[in-house]
Write a structure and sequence with these properties.
The protein is mainly alpha-helical. It has 4 helices and no strands. The longest helix is centred in the last third of the chain and has 36 residues.
Length: about 120
């Protein structure tokens, strides 16, 4: 699960950065505000890569997905990108857990049959 989720989070890192560039064109927003918000979200996406397997890591990832969708109020294309990355996040968590379960099953089978012959 960690690899799939980390890949999604790194993709989000770049999307947040590009959204910051687009948001800078808004006359109502200062450059400092845009890059403070984007910088915090970008840092969170990178830090979450290492926290995925820890308690609360997946939930923080969901919070980041919600913030990405909410970014659509500033940069309208973030509504679409936020939903797309939310779907990717769901798939990463869902299928990542299935892969982890399968790996654990295969490891248990390998321990039960150390010489490689069927039981």
């Amino acid at each position: 699960m960690r690899t799939l989720c980390a890949s999604t989070l790194i993709g989000e890192f770049f999307v947040i950065g590009f959204a910051g560039l687009v948001a800078m064109k808004e006359p109502d927003l200062s450059t400092a505000t845009v890059w403070t918000v984007c910088g915090v979200l970008m840092a969170l996406s990178v830090l979450l890569c290492g926290m995925i397997t820890r308690p609360g890591g997946v939930q923080l990832g969901w919070a980041l997905q919600i913030l990405l969708v909410a970014g659509g109020f500033v940069v309208p294309s973030m509504f679409i990108l936020g939903v797309a990355f939310g779907a990717l996040w769901w798939a990463s968590v869902h299928y990542g857990r299935k892969i982890d379960e399968a790996k654990a099953r295969f490891a248990a089978q390998a321990k039960a049959e150390p010489d490689g012959t069927p039981a």
